[in-house]
Amino acid sequence: MDIFEFSNEDSDETPGIVIDNGTDTMKLGFVGDDAPRCVFPTVVGRVENLTRFLLELQPKTLFVGEDALSKKGRRTIYCPIKRGIIEEWDNMVEVWEHSFKNEIRVYPSEHPILMTESLDNPKVNREKTCQILFETFKVPSFYLVPQQVLQLCAYGMTSGCLINLGITSNCCCILDSKIMKNSCLRCSVEAGGITELLKELLAMRGYQFTTRLELDYLKDLKEKYSYCLTNNIPETISAIENKSQIREYEMFNGGCVRFGKERFLAPELFFRSRKQILEMSNLLTNNCKGINSNFQEMEREKEKEKEKEKEKEKEKEKEKEKEKEKENENENEKEIEKNTRIKSYSTLPKMIYQSIISISEEKQKQVFENIVISGGSSLFEGLQERLQKEVKSFWAENAPEVKVHAIPERKYATWIGGSIFASLKSMKNKWMTKEEYNENGSSFVHIKCNDCL
Ligand SMILES: Nc1ncnc2c1ncn2[C@@H]1O[C@H](COP(=O)(O)OP(=O)(O)OP(=O)(O)O)[C@@H](O)[C@H]1O
Ligand SMILES: [Mg+2]
Predict the structure, then answer these.
(1) Is the beta carbon of 379 within 6 A of some atom in ligand 1?
(2) Where is the composition biased (Basic and acidic residues) (predicted)?
């Protein structure tokens, strides 16, 4: 992929549209723009079980995005994308329809559409997306790209370890623009888990968040005030002793949420178990004196756990090697299935480390220096620094250079990368056209949209 060679034709063609299908939010805009023009929640609200009488009074029964979440009226809320994968197709079609009609306001039949997909998007989903875009929306041409490939473009790199932190947390290594299949991993900690933990921690202070509106405020509070510890022990103590760490958040009803340690305890879930965090919370509440020794004990335990897990991983690797040898024997007979479920790890550093050591040894150094974070949940202050330290801590000595990159625009890195990707000269012949679809059907998507896999 010649990522720096842009198309310089002054085209009078209609501009392409980039659509980043997010579990949480849709991002849409024109190819060549610096940022998406429309961002809205990926939700559909349906008013169900209405009598005829009520239907006559309020004929509109379907709402998308912000409208679906507005508090007026009773409706069932549907989230068509679950963990990055489209699961409710009727609702997704409504989201796309709304995108074209009310958000970006274009006729899809007049614009090439580039869409993003999750690393483990099943083949059937790729085909279905393609079919809907050509048949329902009558697009002239279409392209589908894994989010990580676009994130790489946004960072102007051709190799690296790409970490998507949206609602889902997943990563892969890309070498010379090719995704390394074995390096595609997930982390079981997701944005919803962090919000849920924050809710639990704040409940211990007596604050309840239950209604949809309250939960919206909780999410906002998380986004505004949470941060990742960059230095475990000293910062933790200063965080509770130093009044400047306390924040006050005003609620819609005039109430006020006052909180301190919860700011860093919730995102700590990226690095340790919920149980350990609740223990930390108790220590901080009850036992400020002697806290250092308690933390040091916890740290030692964490180290021991790490050691044990490393041993286990080594064993697993050996087994895997054996299995691989067996598999290789049959490889030519089998079609390589891109979409087997990808393996999940319990913390972000583990996921990153495992992903990178799955690639060939001589390439690892380069990738350890090119770790990239993208997505809304990558915005936690301190995350970049903490990840850098934790990934490095997998080595007792002779650690390679570890560098985590984080551009300010990383929340929209996938979309921005899509805008760059679709502007490349090389893209001109890549689009899957309506004619190709009519001739070959939806499975052609795997042939056309496959250059990065
Ligand atoms: N400043 C912030 N600090 C921490 N988290 C944030 C911040 N801003 C947004 N988020 C979180 O980012 C998440 C949404 O990120 P994003 O829009 O990248 O997800 P998505 O693309 O819809 O999901 P996915 O890529 O997993 O399908 C939400 O959980 C939101 O609370
Ligand atoms: Mg995303």
Answers:
(1) yes
(2) 297-337
